TrEMBL record:
Lineage summary: Bacteria, Bacillati, Actinomycetota, Actinomycetes, Micrococcales
TM regions (residue ranges): none
Superkingdom in the source lineage: Bacteria
Domain ABC transporter: 5-238
Organism: Cellulomonas wangsupingiae
Protein name per its UniProtKB record: ABC transporter ATP-binding protein
């Protein structure tokens, strides 16, 4: 028998829609694991999460916990916690009142036990001592931390999170994603986490499930997903920006393609048969000022600074437009030619 959550061939259909929002998805989330559902807007992530919660009816398939169907079990009896983009705190309760709200009645009635549990949860989410704060005075990030504490209070067997960080600014989102990972791990919480942000999915989840048009395209641990995307669509969604056919042995190929294939082979990049594809992420080429003749040449289009590093958009013959990395402070005029090295660390092999 499988433990944890089993999503079995689930279909979600909205009245009048031409196609199902979720179209035969199979997914498991074993106890203690955090899985991110990642995909573009409208691909059906929230619909799937809501179907797991019991908020959308199943048009097909089943949702089970520990091998037992919960399809006929109402939302509040599934033992699943929910956290949305806007944590929807109760404005008339203070922080402690909000956190205690979801606790089992027995704990809520025992004042000492309740206060201890509230304190423990507020410590966990990084808000110690805020019990008496009016929730209207909290920042957006603090509100989501309180909402997380409230969702964890009943010790749900599964926590369902729908874009819980997307209302926050980027810097805060990055920090909270790491904190969220820590809290979920520390509490051993099993979780299904919806996001459209690749970085967030990679930061929070043990495994990432990539969705598109109602279907699951690939499920893998972050490093494996990045190294071996199953298709061009998955690679594009992860942020790979150019694709190059692997040439047949002995066939004529542009210098840049040969350099990429050689670098990838030397680094042991998987799956490089002729007819396959190389997917290039930012950094597949690195600016090598003063390099000798014979290296790849790119024509600089745009220079930009990102977190102290210089990124150069270059046109490379046989490859197209890609983002190359350059040493900090390096500069040159748009239109100039620059020498580039291929870096296999930003290259993945794909089936053709
Ligand atoms: N209540 C509804 N009634 C009709 N159609 C809906 C409803 N909710 C969602 N849809 C449609 O179902 C599809 C999937 O929507 P869903 O919200 O699940 O996607 P998503 O991947 O979570 O998108 P986003 O990241 O933008 O929230 C979309 O085409 C959407 O317009």
């Amino acid at each position: 028998m499988s433990d944890g959550l089993q999503v079995l061939d689930v279909v979600v259909r909205y009245a009048g829609a031409p196609a199902p929002a979720v179209d035969g998805v199979d997914l498991t989330v074993p106890t203690g694991e955090v899985v991110a559902l990642l995909g573009p807007s409208g691909c059906g992530k929230s619909s799937l999460l809501r179907a797991v919660a019991g908020l959308e009816p199943l048009a097909g398939g089943d949702v089970a916990w520990d091998g037992v169907s919960v399809a006929g079990v109402p939302v509040h009896r599934r033992g699943f916690g929910l956290l949305f983009q806007d944590g929807q705190l109760f404005a008339h309760r203070d922080v402690a009142g909000n956190v205690a709200y979801g606790m089992p009645t027995l704990v809520r009635r025992d004042r000492a036990a309740r206060d201890a549990r509230v304190a423990e949860l507020l410590d966990l989410v990084g808000l110690p001592g805020t019990q008496r704060r009016d929730v209207a005075t909290l920042s957006g990030g603090e509100r989501q931390r309180v909402a997380l504490a409230r969702a964890l209070a009943p010790r749900p067997r599964l926590l369902l999170l729908d874009e819980p960080l997307s209302a926050l600014d980027r810097a805060l989102r990055e920090r909270l994603a790491l904190d969220l990972r820590e809290v979920l791990t520390a509490t051993g919480t099993t979780a299904l986490f919806v996001t459209h942000d690749q970085d967030e999915a990679f930061a929070v989840a043990d495994r990432v499930a990539v969705m598109d048009a109602g279907r699951l395209l690939q499920v893998a641990a972050p490093a494996a997903l990045w190294a071996r995307p199953a298709s061009r669509r998955v690679a594009q969604f992860l942020g790979y920006e150019a694709f190059v056919d692997v040439p047949s042995p002995g066939a004529d190929a542009p210098a840049a393609v040969r350099a990429l294939v050689d670098a990838a082979r030397a680094a042991g990049v998987a799956l490089l048969p002729a007819g396959g594809l190389l997917a290039l992420a930012a950094g597949a080429f690195v600016v090598a000022p003063g390099a000798a003749d014979g290296v790849v040449v790119g024509t600089v289009r745009v220079l930009r600074s990102r977190r102290g590093r210089t990124e150069v958009v270059v046109d490379v013959d046989g490859v197209g437009r890609v983002s190359a990395l350059a040493p900090a402070g390096w500069t040159c005029a748009p239109g100039a030619d620059v020498a580039l090295h291929a870096d296999a660390a930003a290259v993945a092999g794909l089936p053709g």
